[in-house]
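Milestone M4 deliverable, item 7.
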Amino acid sequence: MASKDYDELLQQIEDIQDENSIKDYHAFVYWFIETLFGYDKAKILNSICDGCHDKGVDAVLIDHIERHVCIIQSKFERAGSQVQLSEADIKQFAAVKNYFQHRKALDSAIVKANQLSSRLLNEAFEAIRRKGYSLELVFITTHRKAPQIDGLIRETLKFKPGEFSLYDYTRIIQLFQDRRRDFTPPLGPYHLPYKDSDKYIIRTPQSKAWVLTVAADEIRALVTKHGDKLFRKNVRNFLGSNRCNKAIQLTLANNPENFWYYNNGISILCDEANLDVENKYIRMVNPQIVNGCQTVKSIQLFKGELNADVLVRVIESRSHEFINAITLYQNSSNPVRNRDFKSNDPVQVRLKQEFRRRGYYYEIKRGEEFKKTIKQFPAAKKEYQNGELNNEKVAKVLAAVRINPETAVSKGSEAFFDELYDDIFPHNISTSDCLTPFLLHRAFIRETYIGAEKRFHKFDKPYVFKNPASFHVLSIMYKALRRGLPAGWEKSFIAFCEGSTDREYNVFWKKLAKIISDYFEICYDAWKKSGVVDYNTYLQSRKSSSDIASKYKTELASMEKTLLNLFQDRILVRASYKASR
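Output delivered:
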């Protein structure tokens, strides 16, 4: 039975089909190449062999860097998983391997092919036969896999690992889910040497796993090759020179013979794994370190000679639920937070991508802070000209306007990214939904007490009261603006914050600051009259919102009118004027 994910996949395929005026099965191939390899539009379209479908080839990819040729054949039907893949389809495609045995076989295969197909297959032949490129056949289908297919490919047809790959319905859906979580394009195969005397294999009903002893310098080679791409499925990146990571480096330097015993080891998740006993390495397809990032990066950064061994678990699985479980139970030295678990959530990944297009750096994972990123890649500062956003801070202002201000005051990140997550970050939340309250709070409300010289009543430091009260002010203002302004005001407000002149901004800010100060006065007055000694306790209770709404109706109504007139005059009129020019 097809899933909701499959329906979304079909919609993406239809969009590709309409945009490029190609057949549905070619749109399926296009989606696959874009997702798995990350190629651009021109390269994908130039690799699709329209016209030679009857010869069992839909696309030819030639990678001159990796010295690899990939031949793709598709079997596409909209009714996903309803049909079982037949052995005949696999056998027919397997025969394509014979095209590259000698020139006569290829000439016979392409006799009726169009110019593009002939050129690509001839280039592939030259690369394989004359330059020694490797060949991989990739069969992609929306059919479900028959139980005997793996045996057919490996035992009957004698394909070795890396020579024939099958993406059936289940694996296509997994690839779709990986794309939504920004785990694509995947990493290719990697051969990780291990120490033969210490190997053993664990088999479980859910996944196949190997526990191996690997030299630390081999771990360094792995991370040097793939860099931070190895940690995309991890819930966080390297946390820097903290206490735990300093201890790892000290053990590497002073007690390397015991490193295997002292360290928790590394867990590597991969799509496929095969142990080559003869050559003493494990072949991993798309390796991802889901636990042990701190260990791996500490090994990479170690300046001395590496004489230690590392405990390595290699697990063959594609289940996101299983990934989360592994991370939960294996992280102990650097505790995992609820926010970490949401770092690969599709909503957070989508927002990160959309904010990037708007010029914002949206931080969703520890170890990927903006300052660290621009220090490593200085050119990135131009790409993120609007600066950084932290999803913890965004969550707090969203809690104030989507739930209530007392929740924003009393709760923190652990709750925002756990039981309150779906209320704060629903699946259809947009960047405008996030930016509007965030900018209103950060750029205007907080500015009334950041660096303030005057005391706020009896507080020596105004922020001790104004900081928690600011979420009540935000909630009141945001509700008033949503209630009184026409649809689309949020985009106009964001455009003003991002593109107004200094004069426009200062005129607006001076008028708005007076209104915001009046809102703070109401919050202060409500607290003083409540009889509650601790302002924080009061502002964390539902009584605060109830008091403000019921006891200050007249004042709030007057302030709301002033607020709406200001936004109408300074924000919406400006937006209309700019749109008309």
